[in-house]
Amino acid sequence: MNIFNKKHFYGLFTILILSFLLVACGGKDDDATSGSKDGEGSEYSQDTWKFVTEEVAGQVQYEYAAEFAKRVSEKTNGAITVEPYEYGGLGSESDQVEMLQNGGVQMAVMSPGFTGGMVKEGQIFALQYLFPDSVEKTQEILTNSEALNTDLRKRYEEYGISPLAFWTEGATQWTSSTPIKKPEDFNNFKMRTQESPLILKSYEAYGADPTPMSWSELYTALDNGTVEGQENPIFFIGDASFHEVQDYMTISNHNNYVAMTTVNTDWYESLGEAEQKLIDETVEEMRSWTFDEQQRQNDKFLEEIKNDTDNPTEVIELTEEEREAFKELALPVRDFYRENVSTVDGEILDKLVKEIEEVQ
Ligand code: 6CS
User: I want to staple 147 with a disulfide (CB 3.0 to 4.6 A). Which of 39, 50, 301, 351 is the partner?
Assistant: First the structure.
């Protein structure tokens, strides 16, 4: 079932109204918290933090925010309430970025693919075949990288956004209406992408015709042929039912889907030491939680897609040789990033490449 066609569409208006009321009145989400609500015996003052995500209940980002909320409530004995928001209630992905910047929400899980027009360096995650095939190794790099956690973080902070953690939602795969096995299969192929210019460039390098759009429009666009394919981790393909309106899924592992836990920089810096420590510690704890969650969901949905006989999807596994053909075309996009995208002459990319080499 497609969440944005059959279920979410009808509820969207209601969610919009409810979310508006929640934002306006600072209402609480009872699911998000547990334990005492009065903060009795807590060193923390009563407070409410809004945490917006780009996904809906059950999907990795939203479940991350809900788990984060639960932990904060427990640690503060209910003094601090974190309200997780599903995607759809507070506007598009780009609206959510603006909302974090202007303090309408305090926290967000954000995909760098929606900030590329602003934080140019963040487009580094659009570079295909840059991170290792192994999701574990990719997570190790995302956790420890100075290039990302110090240098790239500074670039985001110029725009009032502090990424506190980078984490993977799994390897990305292609779904399509015609089989994709070699770069030529992308010739004039109408590919849906997120908004970052470098993502478009990456698909143009394969000869495709990319179109940026929000994921809320994607099921319909795939169904009516406005676009012929898209990329995402398997759990998202399955949960959003994109496979229902696609005939093929290529296991290309061409990238890892990276999400960031972000906070409004001014708000975070204005917090007391105890609150900052609380956030930092919870972000640290959540690393292994979210890694396990994405793995569980990606494994589960791979089986579901394979077993969905009502909506058959041919799963194409690329060989190493077949992946090499894509990689060859993807490599020059790194030079384009260095020369035309980066505002610091590719320094962050060069440092990251070294860090990746050390892990591999
Ligand atoms: O394709 C997208 O745009 C969406 N994909 C994921 C895995 N999360 C949210 C994002 O907006």
Answer: 351
Rounded Cα distance, 226 and 149, in Å: 38
Answer for the pair 3, 241: CB distance below 8 angstroms, yes or no. yes
- For the Cβ of 232 lying below 6 angstroms from any atom of ligand 1, the answer is yes
Architecture of the domain defined by 47-359: 3-Layer(aba) Sandwich (3.40)
The model's pLDDT over 185-210, given as tens digits with 9 standing for 90+, comes to 999 999 999 999 999 999 999 999 99
Using alpha carbons, select from 255, 110, 117 the residue that is nearest to residue 198: 117
Domain range summary for the chain, segments of one domain joined by +: 47-359
User: pTM of the entire structure?
Assistant: 0.91
Confidence at residue 37, expressed as pLDDT on a 0 to 100 scale: 56
User: DSSP assignment of 132-172, as one string?
Assistant: -S-HHHHHHHHHH-HIIIIIIHHHHHTTTEEEEEEEEEEEE
Please indicate whether residue 235, judged by its CB atom, sits closer than 6 Å to ligand 1: no
Going from the C-alpha of 58 to that of each of 86, 235, 243, the distances in angstroms are 10, 10, 18
Residue of minimum CA distance from atom 9 in ligand 1: 54
Identity of the residue numbered 164: L
Q: Report how far residue 8's alpha carbon sits from residue 347's, in angstroms, rounded to the nearest whole number.
A: 42
Distance CA(7)–CA(204), nearest Å, equals 34
pLDDT digits 0-9 by tens, 5-62: 544 444 444 444 444 444 444 433 444 444 455 677 789 999 999 999 999 999 999 9
Output the residue whose Cα is nearest ligand 1's atom 2.
215
* Residue from 307, 326, 324 nearest 315 by CA: 307
The atom number, within ligand 1, closest to the CA of 214 reads: 3
- Mind listing the pLDDT tens digit for each residue in 329-358? 999 999 999 999 999 989 999 999 999 999
C-alpha distance from residue 145 to each of 12, 153, 291, 348 (Å): 39, 11, 17, 10
CA 85 → CA 41, 256, 281, 316, distances in Å? Answer: 28, 24, 21, 35
In tens, the pLDDT along 106-126 reads 999 999 999 999 999 999 999
Ligand 1: which of 230, 234, 236 to mutate, most ligand atoms within 8 Å of CB? 236
Q: How far away, in angstroms, is 75 Cα from ligand 1 center?
A: 30
